[in-house]
Amino acid sequence: MNEASHDQRLSPAEAAAIRDTAERLRANVERVIVGQREVIDLALVALLCEGHLLLEDVPGTGKTTLAKAIARSLDCSFKRIQFTPDLMPSDITGITYYNQKLGEFVFREGPLLAQVVLADEINRATPRTQSALLEAMEERQLTVEGTTVRMPAPFLVIATQNPVELEGTFPLPEAQLDRFLLRLRLGYPGEDEEDLILQRFEAESPLESLRPVIEAPALLEMAAQLRRLHVAPPVRRYIVQLVQATRAEPAFELGGSPRATLALFRAARARAVLEGRDYVLPDDAKALVPYVLGHRVILSTQARLRGRDVEALLAEVVERVPAPIEG
Known about the structure:
This protein has helices at 3-7, 12-29, 37-48, 63-73, 89-93, 127-139, 174-177, 191-200, 216-226, 233-248, 258-274, 282-293, 301-305, 310-320, and strands at residues 53-56, 74-75, 78-82, 94-99, 104-109, 116-120, 141-144, 147-150, 156-161, 182-184, 214-215, 252-254, 298-299.
């Protein structure tokens, strides 16, 4: 892509094409995941932003199934890593060994070198192993015994963790949580939705027959196009003000970082294009605040003692920041 085309704004036709592809992805995933359209759309936001996803909920709500459905909908290499306390960094990154036949050292890839990686129960691994994963997420490369290996493109980590069962776990520190673009919770389905799940899975899992609907180069092209989506200066400033307001909120010991501002900006563009628009509205940023900022702010001691809720506090912050008015 030349410089002239890079500076060109995303056209309505290009935005509509991305939306149409996203709708095919959504429909494919919904063959397996019932009643979670908002969660699926948020996962698509992460895909378009080339960002990583943290799924946090109790066991049995479909976290792993959602991750597998997304992976199978993409024509990408996929690896699942079951995180356990005895998992070593080399178990996921790979090792360098001496090949006697070749007479030289050879790097053997670990499961982390895949385009879509499901990091199951990431909080069960030790901090050292977590760091190996999160370094690859941030740097898009691995260094193993002096050998530097670039991660494949696209590179998406979908991590799951159970926030209830804490025995034998190693919670991710805030600096590492910040590497995830979005944190989502699936929640329990309603009565009708749960009955539909039984019907779909009665004979066999629909996951087994799921086929890819988009190839890796097309996903990379959509991500590149998204970077040309127009954001008006007042909306851009509004996104900055939202994050800065979390730093001024006394109930937060730590507010959103500049990385959080960039994440909200990127996610708002993706949400806009999923709606078929070639421009961002303040409502795009508003809707994403709980998912982009919820895991990036820390409650103060007093707020925790009073039983304050992060999402409720973020909603209050959003209400206090005036949104720009069109025209």
